[in-house]
């Protein structure tokens, strides 16, 4: 692919791909239902977890600057099976994420027309959550994908302009919201307790997927070792601060019980007498969601193309168009699947599954980083490999136990005196008992193994804060992925590897 992007492009891609449906839609929904005014703490928690994952992504993107993102990194470090499961979740995240944003786009477009948020959808007798058909979401997805297929550089320019306008609107929302702030609306600050804060944090994690998109563009970045850290860390730092300020302004402008779950900011401004501002907010939200779809169409296609290069899905999807230099076939695959889901599924059904899939991917990335640092095939002694596996399993198991205990216990603390020390001992064991086998050449995650281990723990903890329905849907999707892998994907990758070996032997 063409190397045409720099750190400035990547920073704006980060802002464009993140600030959209998450902050404008889920903030009101989670403040009203789960967190109350403490929604700002939910964004702090999910932001810290996301930043830990950003550090892992940055090291991989510099060391392995290809278009495949987490799939490519995990395939190198953990092998085909782990990579395929992650690839399936990446595709699931991409498809569901685009569908969710497109559904939210329709809601805010209805508000801009001064109509109820569901008024532009077609009501049917299907099951609740799937009974409102959304043809507008399908059309928006088609338009965004068409632009992305035309040119990466032109999409970057359009994203930069739209993101700049969206940033102005966001600054207005923060300033005007704080101008009408009433501290009385912050009481009670924790109406649903700490559980509500972390449950909301797991859902609003939906608002932080953009840095993954930046990593997929490494193959089109002019200077990956400089541009990727600046683009990733810079955009995520800005985004986290913006999210916390926007959540705080909403909570102070309107009492959490009065927040509208579907169009929180527009209705909040209307409630303080700024009726005209709700239209400005709706325009800003639409611009934000449009850029999310544009950047999503770019990054998702690159993921899919890289997965197809490995023959885990048909290699036809890896083809790059000679004129546009973009993977058109992969873009069409994601767009068609997203459009089908967006036509039927509501946002609340999609958001929890998307968050769970993202958290799983980011947990796997932290595991892969520890493997990369402490294991090199043919160099690391077998005894050290065994120690690494045991200690990683201890870290993962103790993190899962902490998450499970949090979910099952209302106010107990005794379980944490067992699970947290086990996590600490597992991490300390890697730090003391194992020498690092690989040192990053340009930039690396600091405080290894502590920060990657903390990333594993926080991602699993947030996963445990999600409801049972999300895990059921996740389990069904994973089962489908496994069936495909064992009947099709495994044979395809084996045949490709055998063909490569045959060509090498012929060459000799």
Question: Can you walk through the features of this model?
Answer:
54% of the residues are buried. A two-stranded antiparallel ribbon has the order 1-2. Helix content is 74%, strand content 1%. The protein has helices at residues 7-18, 21-35, 39-63, 69-78, 80-112, 135-150, 152-179, 193-204, 210-215, 224-253, 264-271, 275-309, 328-344, 347-374, 382-408, 416-433, 450-464, 468-507, and strands at 122-123, 132-133.
Structure keywords:
508 residues, mainly alpha, two-stranded antiparallel ribbon, 18 helices
Question: What layout of secondary structure does this protein have?
Answer:
Layout: H1 7-18, H2 21-35, H3 39-63, H4 69-78, H5 80-112, E1 122-123, E2 132-133, H6 135-150, H7 152-179, H8 193-204, H9 210-215, H10 224-253, H11 264-271, H12 275-309, H13 328-344, H14 347-374, H15 382-408, H16 416-433, H17 450-464, H18 468-507
Antiparallel strand pairs: 1-2
Helix pairs in contact: 1-7, 1-10, 1-12, 2-8, 2-10, 3-8, 3-10, 3-14, 3-17, 4-5, 4-14, 5-6, 5-12, 5-13, 5-14, 5-18, 6-12, 6-13, 7-10, 7-12, 11-12, 12-13, 14-17, 14-18, 15-16, 15-17
């Amino acid at each position: 692919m063409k190397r045409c992007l720099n750190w400035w492009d990547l920073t704006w891609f980060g802002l464009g791909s993140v600030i959209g449906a998450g902050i404008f839609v889920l903030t009101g929904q989670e403040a009203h239902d789960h967190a109350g005014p403490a929604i700002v703490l939910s964004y702090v928690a999910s932001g810290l977890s996301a930043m830990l994952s950003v550090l892992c992504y940055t090291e991989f993107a510099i060391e392995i600057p290809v278009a495949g993102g987490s799939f490519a990194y995990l395939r190198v470090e953990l092998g085909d099976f782990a990579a395929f499961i992650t690839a399936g979740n990446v595709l699931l995240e991409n498809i569901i994420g685009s569908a969710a944003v497109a559904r939210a786009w329709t809601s805010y477009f209805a508000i801009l027309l001064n109509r109820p948020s569901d008024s532009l959808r077609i009501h049917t007798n299907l099951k609740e959550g799937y009974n409102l058909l959304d043809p507008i979401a399908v059309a928006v997805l088609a338009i965004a994908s068409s632009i992305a297929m035309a040119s990466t550089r032109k999409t970057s320019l359009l994203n930069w302009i739209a993101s700049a306008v969206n940033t102005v609107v966001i600054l207005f929302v923060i300033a005007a919201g704080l101008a009408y702030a009433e501290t009385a609306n912050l009481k009670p600050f924790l109406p649903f307790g700490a559980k509500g804060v972390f449950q909301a944090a797991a859902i609003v994690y939906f608002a932080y997927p953009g840095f993954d998109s930046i990593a997929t563009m490494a193959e089109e970045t002019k200077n990956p070792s400089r541009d990727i850290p600046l683009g990733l860390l810079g955009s995520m730092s800005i985004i986290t601060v913006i999210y916390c300020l926007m959540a705080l302004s909403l909570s102070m402008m309107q009492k959490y019980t009065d927040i509208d779950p579907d169009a929180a900011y527009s209705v909040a401004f209307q409630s303080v007498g700024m009726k005209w501002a709700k239209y400005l907010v709706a325009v800003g939200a639409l611009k934000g969601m449009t850029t999310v779809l544009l950047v999503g169409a770019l990054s998702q296609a690159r993921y899919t193309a890289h997965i197809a290069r490995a023959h885990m899905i048909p290699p036809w999807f890896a083809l790059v168009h000679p004129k546009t230099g973009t993977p058109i076939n992969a873009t069409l695959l994601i767009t068609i699947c997203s459009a089908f889901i967006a036509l039927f599924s509501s946002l609340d059904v999609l958001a929890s599954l998307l968050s769970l899939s993202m958290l799983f991917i980011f947990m796997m990335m932290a595991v892969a980083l520890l493997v990369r640092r402490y294991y090199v095939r043919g160099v690391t002694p077998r005894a050290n490999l065994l120690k690494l596996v045991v200690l990683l399993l201890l870290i993962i198991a103790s993190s899962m136990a902490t998450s499970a205990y949090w979910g099952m216990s209302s106010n107990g603390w005794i379980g944490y005196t067992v699970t947290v020390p086990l996590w600490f001992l597992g991490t300390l064991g890697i730090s003391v008992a194992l020498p690092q086998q690989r040192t990053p050449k340009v930039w690396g995650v600091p405080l290894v193994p502590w920060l990657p281990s903390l990333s594993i723990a926080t991602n699993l903890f947030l996963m445990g804060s999600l409801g049972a329905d999300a895990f059921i849907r996740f389990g069904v999707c994973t089962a489908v992925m496994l069936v495909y892998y064992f009947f099709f994907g495994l044979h395809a990758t084996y045949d490709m590897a055998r063909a490569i070996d045959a060509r090498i032997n012929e060459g000799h």
